[in-house]
Amino acid sequence: MKRLFLKFAAIAVVGAIVSACGGSDDDDDNTPTGNIAEVATGSGLTALVAAATKAELVDELSAASATLTVFAPTDAAFGVLATQLGFTSATNMVEQLSKEDLAKILSYHVLPARRSAADLTSTPSQPTIYNFPDTTPTTVTFKTEGGAAVTDAVLSDAKVTRADVAATNGVVHVIDKVLVPPGVLTVVQMAQTNPAAFSTLVGALGTAGLADDLSADGPFTVFAPTNAAFEAISTVVAGLTPEQLTTVLTYHVISGQVLSSDLGPVFGNPQPTLSGQSITIVQGAAPVIATITDAAGTTPPAEIKNVDVRGTNGVIHVIDKVLIPTL
Questions:
Q1: Contact 153, 138 (CB under 8 A)
Q2: Distance of alpha carbon 125 from alpha carbon 37, whole angstroms
Q3: What gap in Å lies between CA 115 and CA 138, rounded to an integer?
Q4: CA–CA–CA angle 305, 322, 276 (5° rounding)
Q5: Alpha-carbon distance 103 to 117, whole Å?
Q6: What interhelical angle do 242-250 and 195-208 show, nearest 10?
Q7: Of 305, 294, 302, which Cα lies nearest the Cα of 321?
Q8: Distance (Å, whole) CA 257 – CA 109
Q9: What is the pLDDT of residues 152-184, one digit of tens each?
Q10: Residue 253: φ, ψ to 5°
Q11: Alpha helices of 30-73 — where are they, by DSSP H?
Q12: Eight-state DSSP code of residue 194
C-alpha cells in the first residue's frame, strides 16, 4: 500500500509540473515518437544533440536494444553552463570541449534502465552510466520537495520541466540545467557552476588573482565557504587589503587531496594551508561531520556541511563560516 501511495503521489507531482510548464498532454508524452535521440531532436534540444553527436553517443541513445533514462537539458541550460565556464555560447562550449569530456558529462545524464518519475520518487538515488573514479558508477539524486529536481555532483539542482516523455528505447525527463559530474571540471570550475552557493568565493578568487593558481594540476583540498558565510562577515571582507584577501583565501586550501574517507588521521593535527598558517580539523558529534578551528579561534568553529565535491585537480568540502587566519 505504501509503495502504491508513493507512486500515485509522484504521478500527481509530476503531472502538476508538466501542466505548469506547458508540456503536452499525457497521451502525447506516453506515445513514443522515436528513440531517445529522435525524441531529443524532435523536441528541439539542439545543444544536447550537437554534444551527443560530437561525443559519439547518438548510436547508444538510438539503440533499439537499449532501455535508458535520459535527463535532457534544454538549450537555455547549455547556454547557462557555457556562460559560467567562460564560453561565448553553448555552440562554442561544445566546439571547445573535448569529445571525451562531453561524453563524460552526457553519460552523467543517462541511467542504464527506464525510470519514470514515479520510479525515481520511490528510489531517489540512481546510478548513471558514467563511472568515476575507475569503475565506480556515479549517482544523481531525485527529489520532489518544492517540485521535481535532480541534484548533481556540485550540489546544485536541475528542475524537471517536462517528465516522462516516452521513447521506444526508454524515457526522457527534460531539465533546466546541465548536470555537473565529478572528475571533469577543475575545483574552480566546479564552484563556478554552483553560483547559488559559491558566487562570492569565485568572485573573491578572481579579485585576488587566484583562480588560475587553483586551476593548476594540484591536487588541492578546498574548504569552500558558502555565500551566506561570506555575507555574515561582509564588513570584515570589505576592509581587507589585497594581500590580506589572498591570505584569507589561501588559508582555505590544503596541498594534496584529502577526501572525507581520509579525514580520520587528520583529526586533531594542525594542517598547513597554502597561506603558511595551519587549521585544525576536529571530528564532529553526529550529525556534524567535522569542525575546523582557525587562528582567530572563531566560536563556534566552522562546520563541514558537505564533502567530496570532486574535481579534476582536487576536492571541495563545503563549510558554513569563513576561516580567519592571523592577518
A1: yes
A2: 24
A3: 16
A4: 110
A5: 24
A6: 130
A7: 302
A8: 26
A9: 999 999 999 999 999 999 999 999 999 999 999
A10: -125, 130
A11: 36-42, 46-54, 58-62
A12: -
Query: What sign results for the dihedral spanned by CA atoms 51, 56, 59, 61?
Result: negative
Kindly calculate the radius of gyration of the chain based on its CA atoms and give it in whole angstroms.
21
Give the bridge partners for 153, in sequence order: none
pLDDT tens-digit profile of 133-149?
A: 988 999 999 999 888 99
d(CA 140, CA 126): 6
**From start to end of 94-232, where are the E strands?**
110-111, 125-131, 137-143, 149-151, 157-167, 170-175, 220-225
CA dist 90 and 94 (Å) reads 6
Residue 202 belongs to what H/E stretch? helix 195-208
Cα 59 to Cα 49, 100, 183, 217: the distances in Å are 12, 16, 25, 34
User: What length does the chain have?
Assistant: 327
| 177 closest CA partner among 101, 97, 71, 51 | 71
Coarse DSSP helix, strand, coil percentages of the chain, rounded to the nearest 5 percent: 40, 25, 40
> Residue 160's beta-bridge partner residues?
175
Identify the sign of the CA torsion 298, 224, 176, 18. negative
| Best CA proximity match to 317, nearest among 257, 249, 233 | 257
Contact between 325 and 247 under an 8 Å Cβ cutoff? The reply is yes
Question: Is the Cα torsion angle 194, 199, 200, 202 positive or negative in sign?
Answer: positive
Pairing of strands 68-73, 170-175: parallel
CB 299 within 8 A of CB 203: no
Report residue 281: phi and psi, to 5°. Answer: -100, 130
Q: pTM for this structure?
A: 0.89
Q: Model confidence over 43-75: pLDDT tens digits?
A: 999 999 999 999 999 999 999 988 999 999 999
Give the pLDDT mean for 9-35.
49
